[in-house]
Amino acid sequence: MQIKLPRPTEKQALFLKETKPRICYGGARAGGKSTAIRMKAVLLGLHYPGIQMLLLRRTYPELYENHILELQKLTRGVCTYNDSKKSMHFPNGSRIKFGYCATESDVLQYQGQQYDVIFMDEATQFTEMQYIAISEINRNSNDIQCRFRPRMYLSANPGGVGHAWVKRLFIDRHYQGYENPEDYVFIKATIYDNKPFMKKDPNYVNVLKALPEKRRKAMLDGNWDVYEGQYFSMFDRNVHVAEPFKIPDWWEQFRAFDYGRDMFHCLWFAVDPQGQVYVTREFAQSDLLLKQAAEKALARTPCEEAIRYTVAGADLWNTNQDSGYSGAEIMAQAGLRRLIKADMNRVGGWRALSDWLQPEGNKARLKIFRNCSELIRELTLLQFDPIKSEDVATQPHEITHGPDALRYGIMSRPRISKLPRKHFTRENSFEPEVKSGQKLPKATKDFFTF
Questions:
Q1: What is the pTM of this model?
Q2: Quick check: is 3 in a domain?
């Protein structure tokens, strides 16, 4: 008996050939993700005697319908399926174990096990904690009869509880600690890359085109900046991200930051004469003491005299029982003065920020310089709180610091910049022409009150 695999698409072929430790495939609906995973599992099982593989979905019913039934058909006469052990066995000793992780505690059932290859189908349905726990058991098993580099194969679409960590690793390629950029590869595939499916079901592409705009961009185009549950769904890099430019020294400028030992995220703001607010720079670092955070902010400010004030979370004014000082006092002693308490109304703050981000054509009242990459990334990842629907979810916590600082800044009611007298000319004023003997309108007099 032989196993007859379907002919892979060009994108599936790239996935089948890839051998890096972390490979992610997909990014849109109907790109052939599940088929690619099944083909790869069968090829590995046949080629490497004794290889041990784990194939995961979030729930067992999903696993059974999407993979177990299909693999039984594909390997009939060659492999045997053991329903009690939920595993498929090859004649050469290789095995595919089928598993699920509906809750975070489900990862405990895999403790002490080891798998040469792990497949996570629909990876964005898994939390980052589940991914980390599962990755710990991705190591060479005792059964494999040759040298083999352990690896994980993932498939994913935008959205879901795991959107943030999948996007960070495979789309933004933002790495932390000992994560090696060379270990990660993303292979994007859309329905247009899956010609066999297009031929089989030509109408499905119209189903995707008919989706609401944001979901269509995610599911048809594979756009990771828009997804179901996204809080700032109006955020558009083409509208809200600006190229850096030199800020005139007379513009209103201020800072805002969110402080915690896990992360200090500071933002610098500038306001133009029309009331347009720009976030011009950012600094984010973990494990800083208050004094160190203040010194870092000061060192990265081009002209401290231009900063009118700095907004910080209200908890910075809480007195430490051991030292007797508040965080605001410690930062002031380090030179970071003119600190003001942020308006801590979360729902009101997010509403205000949404108003500032709301596009009007290709314009918006709030723009962010391209160099503020962390803030841009975090804004696109924020989701609605599952309980308090008008609030932003506080998890994953690591992506909330920049947006919190942005909220503090916007809620400080930024003041429109006014042109100093030394820069004033007839060409850049709104002064109406005044004839000899005519009194100047009161509104115009007020305009010149600086």
A1: 0.67
A2: no
Cα distances (Å, whole numbers) of residue 369 to 174, 234, 240, 431 = 18, 17, 9, 32
Q: State the first-to-last Cα distance of the chain, in angstroms, to the nearest integer.
A: 89
Burial of 81 (0-12, 13-18, 19+ CB in 10 A): middle
Q: Is residue 337 part of a domain?
A: yes
H-type alpha helices, 122-203:
128-135, 163-166, 195-200
193 shares its domain with 271: no
Q: Name the nearest CA neighbour of 171 among 36, 27, 37.
A: 27
Domain identity same for 199 and 53: yes
124 Cβ contact partners less than 8 Å away, ≥ 6 residues apart: 156, 157, 158, 159, 160, 161, 162, 163, 166
One domain for residues 347 and 245:
yes
Same domain, 187 and 246: no
Q: Which of 90, 87, 54 is nearest to 75 (CA)?
A: 90
Q: What CATH number should be reported for the domain holding residue 76?
A: 3.40.50.300
pLDDT digits (tens, 9 = 90+) for 285-343: 999 999 999 999 999 999 988 999 999 999 999 987 677 889 999 999 999 989 999 99
Domain shared by 197 and 335, yes or no? no
Cα distance between residue 24 and residue 165, in whole Å: 12
Q: What is the C-alpha to C-alpha distance for residues 231 and 40, in angstroms, rounded to an integer?
A: 36
Domain count, the chain: 2
CA 334/CA 332 separation, integer angstroms? 5
Q: Copy the structure tokens of residue 115.
A: 């798998």
Sign of CA dihedral 126, 128, 132, 138: positive
Domain range for 314 = 237-411
Whether the CB-CB separation of 224 and 385 falls below 8 Å is answered with no
Read off the pLDDT of residues 376-387 as tens digits, 9 standing for 90 and up: 989 988 888 888
Angle at the Cα of 27 from the Cα atoms of 25 and 28, rounded to 5 degrees: 125
- The band of 445, judged by pLDDT with boundaries at 50, 70 and 90, is very low
- Cα–Cα distance list, 232 to 22, 38, 359, 441 (Å): 30, 36, 11, 43
Task: Please check the confidence at residue 427 and state whether its pLDDT lies above 50.
Answer: no
Q: Which residue has the tokens 């006014």?
A: 418
CA gap 38, 67 in Å, rounded: 7
